[in-house]
Amino acid sequence: MSRPSLSLPVIPIALCIFWGCASTQESVDAGAVSRTDKSTLDAQTDSKVGVVNIMSVINQSKVGQPALASWKLHIQEATQQLNAEWQKLQELDKQRRMGNWTTEYQYRTQSQRYAAVYQSYNNASFAGYIKAVAQIMPKVESVTETIAKERDFAIVLVKGNPETIMITFYTANSIDLTDQVIEELNRRFP
């Protein structure tokens, strides 16, 4: 029986649950906690948390290269379309500024078109990121699980940045498993 794979939508749900549990304001009476509960609580507080920067994995691993190339190609095509629409808008603006008021309607229409293409570009960029991550995620999960078990990590989170998906703000180098995951991916999947 295979282990079900976590997908990106599951991560925000898990975080909401985690934050909801971690942010409760209820006080606990220490005398009311049984010895069994104390040992469970001690085991939970000794758990290690690790992080993996998925963008670094995509950029630096061999398995990430095809996904990265596909994403870059998609972005290049979308950028070309965006630039073409921008050039049309600039030309109409130039004509409008020169006193050709018949282009006013065309300029407004082109402005709206450019805004729509720009939004499409942003959506395509994010969709390309999601597709790139989805292509390598099963392998990353497998390798990360192996490393986490070997190093006794209880949980491994995705480390991101504001441009992608940001789950962590700060992590100590000692818990960052990114380099180990990249090395193991390159070893397992040459």
Task: Provide an overview of this structure.
- The chain has 190 residues and is mainly alpha-helical.
- It has a single domain, classed as Protein Binding, DinI Protein, Chain A.
- The chain has six helices and two strands; from the N terminus they run H-H-E-H-H-H-E-H.
- Strands 1-2 form a two-stranded parallel ribbon.
- Helix 3 packs parallel to helix 6.
- The N terminus is likely disordered.
Can you summarize this structure?
The chain has 190 residues and is mainly α. The chain is 65% helix and 7% strand. It has a single domain, classed as Protein Binding, DinI Protein, Chain A (2-Layer Sandwich), CATH 3.30.910.
Outline the fold blueprint:
Blueprint (H helix, E strand, L loop, with lengths): L9 H13 L12 H11 L2 E6 H7 L3 H34 L6 H47 L2 E7 L18 H11 L2
Parallel strand pairs: 1-2
Helix pairs in contact: 3-4, 3-5, 3-6, 4-5, 5-6
The count of DSSP E runs of length 2 or more, i.e. the number of strands, is 2
- What is the number of independent domains? 1
**Major pleated sheet:** 2 strands, parallel
The first-level CATH class is given as Alpha Beta
Shape: elongated
Q: H/E order of the elements?
A: HHEHHHEH
Give the count of helical stretches: 6
Classify the secondary structure makeup into a structural class: mainly alpha
Distance between the termini: 27 Å
What proportion strand?
5-15%
Mean pLDDT: 76
- Poorly predicted runs are 1-36
How much helix, percentage-wise, in residues? 55-70%
Strand order, sheet with most strands: 1-2
CATH architectural group: 2-Layer Sandwich
